[in-house]
Amino acid sequence: MKAMSFVIATAGLLSLAPAHAAKPANPVSVHVLNMQDGLPAPGVEVILERMDTPGKWDKLADMHTNAQGRINALYPAGQPLQQGTYRVIFETGDWYHAHGKQSFFPQIPVVFAIDGSLPHYHVPLLLSPYGYSVYRGN
Which residues bind substrate (predicted)? Predict the structure, then answer.
């Protein structure tokens, strides 16, 4: 019984730790939600690029969203996070085509700055065939 009490007490203490105390495993993530049906958008191709020089982008990653519409680790593993201008490109036209639907936006490029002030940058996309919304998440 003492061992059980210790486990419960330890679990309780761990739950009191601040959410920001745990360092994320990867500094860049995305999430795509389909506003038409309110569900995640699995299978959306997402490309991560970093601006090398003005007008020149270096591709860092190319992945697809999982069943929850997420990519939790988009930044290349083992590479230190660099400050700079980044772009995620959501290949929405391909995704809609695969679902037998049309979209006004074949791609949604989102350009954002990583200044190094945060350990994690999250880019959520709310998607519909003729509009979208993107914001800085957490």
Answer: 31, 70, 135
pLDDT exceeds 50 at position 6: no
Residue 2 vs residue 61, higher pLDDT: 61
Fold for 23-134, please state it. Answer: Immunoglobulin-like (2.60.40)
User: Which of 11 and 36 is assigned the larger pLDDT?
Assistant: 36
Q: Using CB atoms within 10 Å of the CB of residue 13, give its burial: 0 to 12 exposed, 13 to 18 middle, 19+ buried.
A: exposed
> Environment class of residue 93 by beta-carbon count within 10 Å: exposed (0-12), middle (13-18) or buried (19+)?
middle
122 annotated to bind ligand: no
- Domain map of the chain by residue range? 23-134
Residue 25, pLDDT score: 81
- Supply the pLDDT for residue 113: 96
Q: Does residue 31 contact residue 82 with C-beta atoms inside 8 Å?
A: no
The answer to whether 88 and 59 are in contact (CB under 8 A) is no
C-beta separation of 43 from 127 below 8 A? no
